[in-house]
């Protein structure tokens, strides 16, 4: 009971607006600084050596992404169980791979994916498919531009070339890299599910209860590029994510308020050579994969857990140390600024900054929702490229 009271008190403290604003301010200041340094590195080092740029940029990208993972790792300590065999557990974080995930109805699927990447020492070496518009988002988009993220325009002529080019670049990485892929292209909602069912019925595709019909055209192009480039990508991790039921919804705003989530991931390692190269067979492979995912989620909804062997990757202290360092620095600077403002005629700037910070927090939280949305059903699910 004492422990429960401590947890509840901790949540009340974390929900106090000042603390989320400190986290936001820390992210904005450190993210802007790291983006600037990364830009200088990109101008000076990239033209001379792609290898050394990638090695050095890792240490500028990690401090920013680690602050996001910190939310689920330490701020609201969340449980993440992985269900897979011993051989796959041994290989996690040690090879180039494509991680094929489902979105679900939560806006935390991407963050749980990043948490697994961090605990596998791959956080700053993780790539995603993202809409081109996200490249303009402050800090996140800036860093993605210089981190060789795969941006898509929803124009197949340009996207096809972009996918092939980026896969060739990723194949040059000496250290392991993961590509996180969400073939559904958008979050699960009732309206989008109804559109998905209607499309699947018309196209003769599997009708699923828990998932949307996946986009396949970009995946086919990616598999083709992997094989043509002699890529070092050796496997696909078919990863199905689900959240256990708690007294609150698994959302980013609840996480910021100190409310942890309980996530489970069912992982099946598939050698890249087992994926068909012929276009129609590759398309069918993806649909069959999502049909199996849907069956796994049906079992989860009935049993409350995935079946089989499970383990948890150990939480690392790097994200905590990183957050303490940046937060201490930023809070010290902020306090100094507050003292200067209150002693001057510009004291009104302080509440204005707090108000702007509150709006910025809402904006960044909304970005995670919009980045998972799309005009579902307006384009063919057989031909639309994947989106992160």
TrEMBL record:
Keywords: Acyltransferase, Membrane, Transferase, Transmembrane, Transmembrane helix. The chain crosses the membrane at residues 21-45, 317-339, 345-365. It comes from the Eukaryota. Belongs to the 1-acyl-sn-glycerol-3-phosphate acyltransferase family. Residues 97-220 form the Phospholipid/glycerol acyltransferase domain. The lineage of its organism: Eukaryota, Metazoa, Ecdysozoa, Tardigrada, Eutardigrada. GO terms for cellular component: endomembrane system. This is Phospholipid/glycerol acyltransferase domain-containing protein. InterPro entries: Acyltransf_C, Plipid/glycerol_acylTrfase.
């Amino acid at each position: 009971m004492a422990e429960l009271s401590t947890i509840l008190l901790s949540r009340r403290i974390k929900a106090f607006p000042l603390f989320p604003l400190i986290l936001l301010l820390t992210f904005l200041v450190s993210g802007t600084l790291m983006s600037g340094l990364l830009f200088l590195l990109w101008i000076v080092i990239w033209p001379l050596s792609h290898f050394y740029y990638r090695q050095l940029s890792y240490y500028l990208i990690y401090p920013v992404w680690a602050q996001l993972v910190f939310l689920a790792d330490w701020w609201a300590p969340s449980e993440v169980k992985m269900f897979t065999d011993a051989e796959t557990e041994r290989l996690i974080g040690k090879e180039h791979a494509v991680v094929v995930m489902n979105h679900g109805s939560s806006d935390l699927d991407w963050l749980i994916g990043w948490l697994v990447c961090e605990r596998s020492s791959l956080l700053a070496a993780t790539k995603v498919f993202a809409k081109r518009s996200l490249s303009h988002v402050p800090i996140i988009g800036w860093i993605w531009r210089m981190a060789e993220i795969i941006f898509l325009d929803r124009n197949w002529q340009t996207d096809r070339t972009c996918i092939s080019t980026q896969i060739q670049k990723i194949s040059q990485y000496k250290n392991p890299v993961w590509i996180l892929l969400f073939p559904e292209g958008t979050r699960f909602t009732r309206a989008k599910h109804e559109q998905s069912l209607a499309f699947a019925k018309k196209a003769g595709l599997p009708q699923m209860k828990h998932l949307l019909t996946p986009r396949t055209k970009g995946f086919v192009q990616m598999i083709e590029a992997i094989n043509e480039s002699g890529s070092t990508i050796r496997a696909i991790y078919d990863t199905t994510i689900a959240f256990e039921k708690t007294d609150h919804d698994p959302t980013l705003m609840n996480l910021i308020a100190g409310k942890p989530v309980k996530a489970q991931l069912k992982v099946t390692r598939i050698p890249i050579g087992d994926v068909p190269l012929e276009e129609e067979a590759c398309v069918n492979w993806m649909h069959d994969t999502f049909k199996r995912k849907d069956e796994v989620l049906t079992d989860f909804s009935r049993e409350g857990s995935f079946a089989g062997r499970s383990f948890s990757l150990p939480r690392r202290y790097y994200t905590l140390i990183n957050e303490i360092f940046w937060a201490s620095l930023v809070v010290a600077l902020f306090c100094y600024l507050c003292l200067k403002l209150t002693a001057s005629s510009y004291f009104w700037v302080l509440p204005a900054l707090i108000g702007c910070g509150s709006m910025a927090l809402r904006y960044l939280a909304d970005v995670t929702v919009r980045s998972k949305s799309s005009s579902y059903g307006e384009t063919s699910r057989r031909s639309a490229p994947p989106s992160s």
